[in-house]
């Protein structure tokens, strides 16, 4: 689990990022979560946008993405989800303790 201080740090790091995945009317599926998990291994911190065509509740989608990719949900702002997962091989972010 991330502390409030760690989440604030990650939110500031994610501020300049653009979403690299979109969740549309297909919703969250295994293929999408697999791709997100792979992207997290490379980048550690990503944004995902939830399109208006997605029929599911944004909180449900954010939770499903975090669980499916085994990642931490840093923030859900509007229809944008910020996810973090510490990389095993490409460690880039030094998170405050």
UniProtKB/TrEMBL annotation:
Top-level taxonomic group: Bacteria
Domain CRM: 1-96
Keywords annotated in UniProt: RNA-binding
Protein name: RNA-binding protein
PANTHER family linked: RNA-BINDING PROTEIN YHBY
């Amino acid at each position: 689990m991330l502390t409030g201080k760690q989440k604030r740090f990650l939110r500031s790091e994610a501020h300049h990022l653009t979403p690299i995945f979109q969740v549309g009317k297909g919703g969250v599926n295994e293929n999408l979560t697999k791709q997100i998990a792979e992207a997290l291994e490379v980048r550690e911190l990503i944004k995902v946008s939830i399109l208006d065509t997605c029929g599911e509740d944004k909180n449900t989608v954010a939770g499903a993405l975090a669980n499916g990719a085994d990642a931490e949900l840093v923030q859900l702002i509007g229809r944008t989800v910020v996810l973090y997962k510490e990389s095993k091989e490409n460690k880039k972010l030094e998170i405050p303790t």
